[in-house]
Design goal:
Distance between the termini: 46 Å
Strand order of the largest sheet: 1-3-2
Structural class: mainly alpha
Order of helices and strands: HHHHHHHHHHHEEEHHHHHHHHHH
Helix content: 55-70%
Number of helices: 21
Shape: globular
Largest sheet: 3 strands, mixed
Length: 478
């Protein structure tokens, strides 16, 4: 019901009419498909060729949707379009051997199929991509909106409410989220001042953040070091999780650095029957990357974060098949945010600066997203608010643009994380000495991704049942 009601609300946004996205546009979708496009026999080869010969028509449909969007007042802001154009262009600039679209041919032994696929890439796929990039450059860019807020779109207010509902599975208003975010940010700032006094003998928030940002000993020296460090903390976190969880995923996660044509600071890609789960990391500019950022990212994306939760969900038997199509961001991202805090309890952070950094950002996403889309703050104020947490200007700009293409998505992390923390606190207070962290985690994870309202009902029923059982045992003993 939550997903249906949310989907109905999203109709106000007409998302298909402004689908220009530097983080996940149609080219990213097709690139994810090409890597596991089945080949290897005549039937699969024929299916692959038939599917990919439709690629130009798919691109034409994308272009036509954008044209309709422009006519009706729907477009993506210029600054996003300017990011997408070179992403598309680089895909057509690869040599044929290096093109990511050549994956099926490289995985098949048939010389006839390999030649057919080469022809497909040269004569259909690359020209279609060039056509799309040319349309964006020569026509769309000039007509695209300049405002970042979705309020600039027709039905903008209803659209933003729909994005909040979709991202958080709550009916909170943007103003409520903004106010709650500021409250938590202020509380975290006080804790950082206490940590800074202990670690650096400093009690000024800005000076503390500046100290960890300028400490050269906290920065990597090479890309190889980034990769080695992430592998080490991944292994350590996985081993420690066994003391905190009864449930563990049967599948593993593999670190996969971003390729030259890809954009991102870090992410998680779920596994399928045809490929493993990936923890994506960025090996570029190693001297601009810190240990503490990589630690927090690893615990968020892999163990005890996304991979642990989503890996366990994949292992659950008996879930309705429709659940494969559903995913509730506030639960999944909320779990990952909770995992950042849990990792501290587990003793996984190697650097004391990480304890400061972990608290510097959380809940700022609850502030900056409504600040953008409700026109509360101008762009410069939003960027400065993010940078005050120690974030680089480049990263702050990246998150600002992410809020443009995925309104309300940044709010899902802490709306969900705060709810899981609240449920744990409720469990600890009501169960007292009967509280068991493994049992609590079992209860939160056992049904996979669900709306926050359903999660609360589930945990409260578990608490009531456990108390009833405990009371019954005590009465029997007496």
């Amino acid at each position: 019901m939550e997903e249906l009601e949310s989907s109905i609300g999203m109709r106000a946004c007409k998302r298909e009419l402004w689908n220009v996205n530097h983080q996940w546009n149609f080219s990213h979708l097709w690139l994810s498909i090409v890597d596991f496009q089945p080949v290897g026999n005549d039937t699969l080869r024929e299916q692959a060729l038939r599917r990919w010969k439709k690629f130009p028509k798919y691109v034409d449909t994308e272009i036509e949707n954008l044209k309709v969007g422009i006519e009706k007042g729907y477009s993506m802001p210029k600054e996003i379009v300017e990011l997408v154009i070179p992403q598309i262009e680089v895909l057509t600039s690869y040599s044929l051997d290096d093109s990511p679209f050549m994956s099926p041919a490289k995985r098949d032994s048939s010389e006839i199929f390999q030649k057919e696929w080469e022809k497909l890439v040269i004569e259909q796929i690359n020209p279609a991509l060039s056509k799309y990039a040319e349309y964006l450059q020569s026509d769309y860019l000039e007509k695209a909106r300049t405002e970042g807020s979705v309020l600039a779109l027709p039905n903008g207010n209803d659209c933003y409410k729909a994005f909040i509902r979709s991202s958080t599975t709550t009916k909170k208003s943007g103003e409520e989220i903004f106010d709650l975010g500021l409250e938590i940010v202020n509380s975290n700032s006080k804790t950082i001042q206490e940590l800074g006094k202990d670690l650096y003998q400093l009690d000024d928030f800005a000076e503390i953040i500046s100290r960890i940002d300028t400490d050269s000993s906290l920065y990597f020296k090479s890309s190889d070091e980034i990769l080695a460090y992430n592998n080490a903390i991944l292994d350590s976190a996985k081993a420690e999780c066994e003391d905190w969880f009864d449930l563990m995923p049967s599948s593993d996660v593999t670190i996969k650095p971003y390729l030259p044509h890809e954009y991102g600071s870090g992410s998680y890609e779920s596994g399928t029957e045809n490929k493993p789960a990936y923890f994506r990391i960025n090996l570029k500019d190693p001297k601009q990357q810190t240990y503490f950022d990589n630690e927090k990212l690893s615990f968020h994306e892999a163990y005890p974060g996304h991979h642990l939760q989503l890996g366990i969900e994949r292992d659950i038997d008996g879930l309705h098949p429709i659940r494969e199509l559903l995913g509730f961001q506030s639960y999944m991202e909320g779990w990952a945010r909770y995992a950042e805090q849990l990792a501290e309890e587990m003793g996984l952070y190697n650097h004391k600066a990480s304890l400061i950094n972990r608290r510097a950002w959380p809940s700022r996403g609850m502030v900056i997203d409504p600040a953008l889309h409700l026109n509360i703050w101008p762009k410069d104020s939003i960027i400065n608010f993010m940078m005050a947490s120690g974030m680089s200007q480049s990263s702050a700009n990246g998150l600002y643009r992410r809020s443009i293409v995925y309104p309300a998505q940044l709010t899902s992390y802490d709306v969900g994380g705060e709810e899981i923390k609240a449920l744990r606190k409720l469990s600890e207070e009501r169960l007292m000495e009967s509280f068991d962290i493994k049992e609590f985690h079992n209860k939160v994870l056992e049904n996979g991704s669900i709306p926050l309202s359903a999660l609360r009902i589930q945990v409260e029923q578990w608490i009531d049942n456990k108390l009833t059982s405990t009371n019954a045992k005590n009465e029997y003993a007496n």
